[in-house]
Amino acid sequence: MSFFSRNKWNPASKHCYVTGGSAGLGLSLAVLLASHGAHVSIVARDTSKLDDALNKLEKARVSEDQIFRSHSFSIGTAEGANAALKAVTDEHGGLTPDAVFMCAGKSTPKFFVEMSEQDLTEGMTDGYWVQAWTAWAVTRKTVEQQRKGKLCFVSSTVGYMSFVGYASYSPGKHALRGLADTLRSELILYDIDVHIFFPTTMFTPGYEEENKTKPKITLKIEEADSGLQPEQAAAGLLKGIQNGHTHITADLITDLFRSSTRGSAPGHNFFYDSLLNGIAMVAVPFWRSSVDSLVRKHRPEHEQHLRERGFPIQDPSK
Amino acid sequence: MSFFSRNKWNPASKHCYVTGGSAGLGLSLAVLLASHGAHVSIVARDTSKLDDALNKLEKARVSEDQIFRSHSFSIGTAEGANAALKAVTDEHGGLTPDAVFMCAGKSTPKFFVEMSEQDLTEGMTDGYWVQAWTAWAVTRKTVEQQRKGKLCFVSSTVGYMSFVGYASYSPGKHALRGLADTLRSELILYDIDVHIFFPTTMFTPGYEEENKTKPKITLKIEEADSGLQPEQAAAGLLKGIQNGHTHITADLITDLFRSSTRGSAPGHNFFYDSLLNGIAMVAVPFWRSSVDSLVRKHRPEHEQHLRERGFPIQDPSK
């Protein structure tokens, strides 16, 4: 069990399957794993981005034996995730990957009352199913083959907490945490390790995209975030895996939430976690009060915004 | 804001909409609200159970003016939730309810590798969408009418933590928490209060149903749970609402998890929460180790179980 083991996980010669591997965190992680000698399979939708990504993997190659493959699949459905996994395993004698990093996902922040039915269902697909189906497909195959394995989900700081704007995204990122915490316990049955990464803001193409729909008040609340480059986030993820962390964080703010929002997942260092937890108990209420106050002050501007966009506000009916 | 107010919320003469109101927690809560003088609308699917429930509401009546109504709808879709809300508001001059209690939901525990695509999607519908669509429908209408409101979601102890067996349920219950924590912040914009209840095991018809599919190892882990009668849970829920708690709990074990898994949601009493948090920091790792050890010891029996049920386990391929 990795719980008792002090040997750090080494990607060299392991087959690593990275979803969302053509851009952002997924690409940075795929390149990092390649530079550590791993065989890397990436899956994403856009074939030209996948080609560019393969070129980057080649540049990171450290051994002639390394196998790099890319496959274009949409993995937001069970069928898509199964088909992608089949393509990935076919290149490796049908065997399941040694480690799976589920980096696919995206966020489309908006006000809840302006979200359509489609916004909410797509939010759950882009935040949750795009990873859950891969975990399901991989786990079934790995158990069939009686192999060991390693699953790493990618949640978000808003998988620990949430605020205005994230009604379509935070639920899926919390759901991933529920799934990861369940599987950490359940997959002990098969010696499959489960990890989940909670990155803060990352300066990726996806981040630029989400800022296009992000409410002003949400942008304002996030002003103080320092954010990470995807390479920094990927390095933090790999370090967490190597330290055997179940919940992985790569910045202090998210680590404060981790220490005080851990549920039944294992912590890191008891004393460090207790210290952060104590800080969080005092600091989080101050943060919340200041954010609540920002939201409250935003009311007139928000009412104006809704009226301008044709939201059918009636006169107060009291 | 309820945050500053010391006036306890009083259900008398308020219009309360209770989903899942024909059985279990929903029925007990509907009866409790009726006995406090509320107008109560209940929605569920089974019309004969709804009729029985209306009879129970009549017995709890304290004033001739109280309006009790039942409506049969399936509310696992946006369309169903909108239609149910229309029926409920039509009986009250088109006005949105003063408070909405989302008690609909169910759990179907199984081993992850034995879950079908349908098990997983239905788990999310029964755990999450059956409440999320109602919250969405109600919030939009309430903002249109510029009325105040009160939303109360019902999650579960496995919305705070999770273990073997709950891969289709815990994600939805975590997702509800992500939604509730988002909306607690966002709906400050409209003076709509948001609460979320985390009940432990409740001895309801739904509990008897879920035990039929529950893996033995999950039953064993839950052996020590004392559980609540639905009337106790309903009383705990109402007390939490009246105390202005965002996260509501009705038993000590779940309260331990609440205090140490609060994310950015407001706590209860700082000193009490700090005490519980300290206990949880020490106690939860012991609980986890013992449960992990139970799961590990369950391996041979589990492999036998999978083989008997025809799960295609291959010989170890190393």
Model description:
- The structure is a homodimer of 318-residue chains.
- By secondary structure, chain A is an alpha/beta fold.
- Chain A has a single domain, classed as Rossmann fold (3-Layer(aba) Sandwich).
- Chain A is 50% helix and 11% strand.
- Chain A has helices spanning 24-35, 47-60, 78-90, 117-144, 170-186, 205-211, 216-222, 230-242, 252-260, 270-297, 299-308, and strands spanning 15-19, 39-44, 68-72, 99-102, 149-154, 192-197, 247-248.
- The interface between A and B is large, with 82 and 83 residues.
Q: Main interface pair? A: A-B, 82 and 83 residues
What is the string of SSEs of chain A from the N terminus onward? EHEHEHEHEHEHHHEHHH
Percent range for β-strand residues of chain A: 5-15%
Calculate Rg of chain A over CA atoms. 20 Å
Counted by DSSP, the helix tally of chain A is 11
CATH-level-2 architecture of chain A? 3-Layer(aba) Sandwich
Helix and strand composition category of chain A: alpha/beta
Count the beta strands of chain A. 7
User: Looking at CATH, which topology of chain A would you report?
Assistant: Rossmann fold
EC number (chains A, B): 1.1.1.102
GO molecular function (chains A, B): 3-dehydrosphinganine reductase activity
InterPro entries (chains A, B): KDSR-like, NAD(P)-bd_dom_sf, SDR_fam
Main location (chains A, B): endoplasmic reticulum
